[in-house]
Amino acid sequence: MAATVLHFLSLTFFLIHFSTAFTPQDNYLINCGSSTNTLVDENRHFTGESSENGLSYLSKGKSISLTNPIPSSNSSVLYSTARVFISVSSYKFNIKNVGFHLVRLHFSPFSSPDYDLKNANFVVSANGKSLLSNFSAHFTMLKEFILMVNKEELEILFTPTRDSNFAYVNAIEVFSAPKDFIIDEGMTLISPNGIQDFKQNISSKILETVHRINVGGSKLTPFNDTLWRNWIPDEDFLVLKSAAKIATTIHPPNYQPGGATREIAPDNVYMTAQQMNIDNRPSNFMFNITWDFPVRSEDSLHFVRLHFCDIVSIALQTLYFNVYINGKMAFKDLDLSVLTFHELASPTFVDFVVQSSDNSNVVQISVGPSDLSNSLRKNAILNGVEIMKIVNPVGSEKRSKTKRIWILVGSVGGGSFLLSLAILSTLLVLKCRRRKPKPRRVESTGWTPLRAYGGSSHGTLLEGAVLGYGLKIPFADLQLATNNFDKSLIIGSGGFGIVYKGILQENIRVAVKRRVPGNKQGLPEFQTEITVLSRIRHHHLVSLVGYCEEQSEMILVYEYMEKGPLRNHLYGSRLPPLSWKQRLEICIGAARGLHYLHTGSAHGIIHRDIKSTNILLDYNYVAKVADFGLSKSGPCLDETHVSTGVKGSFGYLDPEYFRRQQLTDKSDVYSFGVVLFEVLCARPAVDPLLDREQVHLGEWAMEWQKKGMVEHIVDPRVRGQIKPSSLKKFGETAEKCLADYGIDRPTMGDVLWNLEHALRLQESEIQIDSQVETDITSVSHASPRFVPTVHSSSVGVEEDNDNVSSDITTSRVFSQLITNEGR
Ligand SMILES: *[C@@H]1O[C@H](CO)[C@@H](O)[C@H](O)[C@H]1NC(C)=O
Ligand SMILES: *[C@@H]1O[C@H](CO)[C@@H](O)[C@H](O)[C@H]1NC(C)=O
Ligand SMILES: *[C@@H]1O[C@H](CO)[C@@H](O)[C@H](O)[C@H]1NC(C)=O
Ligand SMILES: *[C@@H]1O[C@H](CO)[C@@H](O)[C@H](O)[C@H]1NC(C)=O
Ligand SMILES: *[C@@H]1O[C@H](CO)[C@@H](O)[C@H](O)[C@H]1NC(C)=O
């Protein structure tokens, strides 16, 4: 039946014709300032400006052609020349095909003895509408505009400003957009006030491309695109990378009449997507995938086009999801099969006009599961995004009924029951979403007031604690930093609370850890955390930026670690593998941090929850140990937290702890040994899906190590890089750490020294002879020169003030093993 409907549809309403290559009716490609024609991207002929051809497009004004005296060998030949305008000048193009056109202006600011193009400052307009004002470029850039040309001529005018007295351009492209490239009617406006019809006319405006993203895919060049566009990958825009997982297909999209065409976006955009990453999560887990696309805060109006193609479902009507733009429900319970006339893997797109709130500098897109998909596997996808700034939002005409709806209603008349159902549901969706705009609620999480915990008040909460008062951060600042604890900024959560990514004033990126409401043990632990954390500062420990204890909130603010947990770089993600040298450096860094915890100025702190998710990496892959202060946090009585907590860290637990119910710093050494094997083998500490003897990494790896065959279990991605001597040293170090009895394990200082040795062995050309290769036991209690220098500065705390750290070494604190989930 669907086939019949489609056939009927394509005959009656959609006489769109596909051809493999798009040939625009108007097509002007000018290599400005050059006298020769140039072939670009194998099929695009840019005309030079010799007097017999392209020069005739120059219409008025005084200009000269300029050649880059030192052309860059790797940049486009288009950028080796420019036309420099020394008075108001223009290009004029005849337009055969009235309608939307794409205009691309290429700027590459080279300098010559006469002109330094970086100093140019000018205005560009098209048929009197301003494209660029007060424009100057400091690096090569391509400006792309989409505009309606409704007369038979397009004049592009360059006006130098008084500051510079000249303007320039390196290349110009003007070509007609494909038919129905932008359907200028029935557009929805998403604004901070809600969702409504966009009552203006895009044709009267100019769109300037800001982002063009191939979600889940690779960079696409003009060569890959029938409209010669650039598409870039989405990864850098994902707010939480681990929320998304790439989906790809090898099958070309199933283009359907009425849906997207190759000109709307190339095949490659529709053949990849991001979908919800539900690995290691229960299938009913609800979360969004969110992208933040930066925009200039002074530009408040954008045209947003979202591309979809269901390449993840195996059957129709199994995928329902919600689409949010700037936190507003743009599409509820979206069923792509409705938009694509019941075809799978059929590309489609939706357009919105988005008005951002003042000072907002991102357009935020989220997709997340719909309640409708309750009984099914939840998923949500996105294949592509285009964001264009609406340059001159002027004029407001009353629009007539939308073309799309007319087409649809027409086809209902044609007698298709199936289709009318589809339309009905689409209309219902539209109705629903318009009737129920969801204003953002002010978050009220309902902490039990502090008074409930034995009469503490703000004044006395931290009384007696030794604190750097400079660390106090007002709650309002944290609300601002996290967009009022926006769910899309969550980067972690667990029994202790939720961690948000945030940006403080002065652009300081931070991780904001907010206590869950109702954590009964919260207060004393919070206090201790601040006290402890504020006095330990070390390059390899994640540092405390501040805290907040206003309004019964308990919030800790840490430095933001760009690259996230070490674990994500080892397995279970699509991050590129770390080299062996990087892994060694990371282990060395973490060992340094731990060594400092055990012996440094804050000495005597046992971390008690060392694992690969608690070793975080900064932008430069420098390892920092996190969550050391949380060893003080009390048990969380919530049953689920308890069980997952135990599971989460189980593989790292010191067996001696079970026997003696007492933790020492050697318990951290044991856990660290497990991390070392994790780094070596790139697999989880516990993997219940493996064969019995392989489930526990510690036990399994120890067997191979003891047999002297550890090379068999090395991560295949680094196996070839590791020098045997380095591997031997590393394996022995990990083995010692995993000794059954704490007394047989090395100190963190010894571990550190041995790891550094493994790094030297890896880096040295010549095999270091065995005499130098000291055995771990013989460096136990090594002379001080092996102990790394510790750079510490305590914050407003006397070095000898030990009344806090003495608290921390007791087993009373560290026997609380059940609160470590999710850190
Ligand atoms: C061209 O090479 C220079 C230096 O060799 C480099 O800085 C620049 O990024 C390169 N440009 C492109 C487009 O590859
Ligand atoms: C033009 O831009 C420059 C910086 O590029 C800025 O300093 C100047 O104030 C701007 N002038 C106007 C009139 O906007
Ligand atoms: C895109 O075009 C380049 C040539 O510019 C080609 O090497 C590459 O394979 C193409 N990519 C895809 C995904 O088609
Ligand atoms: C997804 O994001 C929207 C808008 O920010 C929010 O209202 C919704 O609760 C989020 N859904 C989940 C499951 O986090
Ligand atoms: C939108 O504007 C264009 C050009 O200004 C005009 O031709 C067209 O009729 C307008 N459309 C509507 C629905 O007003």
UniProtKB/TrEMBL annotation:
ATP binds at K513. GO terms for cellular component: membrane. The keyword Nucleus does not apply. The chain crosses the membrane at residues 405-430. It is a single-pass type I membrane protein. GO terms for molecular function: ATP binding; protein serine/threonine kinase activity. CDD domains: STKc_IRAK. Residues 1-21 form the signal peptide. It comes from the Eukaryota. PROSITE patterns: PROTEIN_KINASE_ATP (PS00107), PROTEIN_KINASE_DOM (PS50011), PROTEIN_KINASE_ST (PS00108). Keywords: ATP-binding, Glycoprotein, Kinase, Membrane, Nucleotide-binding, Serine/threonine-protein kinase, Signal, Transferase, Transmembrane, Transmembrane helix. Residues 485-760 form the Protein kinase domain. This is Receptor-like protein kinase. The lineage of its organism: Eukaryota, Viridiplantae, Streptophyta, Embryophyta, Tracheophyta.
